[in-house]
Amino acid sequence: AMLLHMLTAEPEHLVRRSVADLISTIAKIAVPHGQWDELLQFLFQCSQSENPGHREVALVVFTSLTDAIGNLLRQHFVQLTAIFVSGLSDQHQPVRVAAVKAVGTVVQWLEADAERAMFAEVLPPLLQVTQQCIECGDDDTAMHAIEMLIEAVDSNYHALEASLPLLLKFMLDVAAGRGKVETPLREQAMMFVTELAAERAK
Q1: Cβ distance 40 to 24 under 8 Å?
Q2: Each residue of 54-102: pLDDT tens digit?
Q3: What are phi and psi of 92, to 5 degrees?
Q4: Are 150 and 160 in contact (CB under 8 A)?
Q5: Which of 132, 63, 120 is nearest to 92 (CA)?
Q6: Do 147 and 187 touch, CB atoms closer than 8 A?
Q7: Which end of the chain has a smaller Cβ tally under 10 Å, C or N?
Q8: Which value, to the nearest 10 degrees, does the dihedral of the CA atoms of residues 55, 61, 65, 70 take?
């Protein structure tokens, strides 16, 4: 309970992120053993907070947990998807960046058609944030988003199937952005198209 209080009470961003990392480490051990039941509810509340710092750290912890124990969070996927979509549309850039990273961790766990349909709702705002990152020079986050989508082609192609026209148009636009888009990003966009073609040919 003290750690959770620190997460919302700490004014310094770096310290708050360190507390979030500590909570994630403990939760990866505790949650699979049915402990720390109040954690998820606390994080859901943080994700709705008026404080953008709270919304960001909620996404940071969700990212870490989903990556490690996503199968145990499957029952919460509807709620998580809504939080990720909201985060991608957030007015504050750090929250949007955290949401991009959060989306990447959930792809590997999508199995049922309903889960994949939920993921299709996330892709339009994800691509919008990626475009904003490219335009404002945040190449690291844009690169992370494109790399995550390349990994999704390999790990869960069916989760992307419903959105292929949208994804292809976006990646081809990025790849064609000579003079406007940094070369590594253009190369990654072409890599996505190449991976997609290879996957469809199987």
Answers
A1: no
A2: 999 999 999 888 877 777 888 888 888 889 989 998 999 899 989 998 8
A3: -100, 125
A4: no
A5: 132
A6: no
A7: C
A8: 10
- The count of other CB atoms within 10 Å of the CB of residue 202 is 5
- Return d(Cα 192, Cα 89) in angstroms, integer: 24
Helix locations, the chain, DSSP H: 2-9, 13-30, 38-47, 52-69, 77-88, 93-106, 113-136, 139-156, 164-175, 183-201
Q: Hunting for tokens 């996330």 — which residue is that?
A: 122
Query: Do residues 194 and 176 touch, judged by C-beta distance below 8 A?
Result: no
Alpha-carbon distance of 190 to 27, in angstroms, equals 38
pLDDT digits (tens, 9 = 90+) for 144-171: 999 999 988 988 888 888 899 999 999 9
Give me the amino acid identity at 100.
V
Of the candidates 62, 65, 67, 117, which has an alpha carbon nearest to the alpha carbon of residue 87? Answer: 62
Tokens 């909570």 locate to 23
Q: How far apart are CA 96 and CA 23, in angstroms?
A: 21
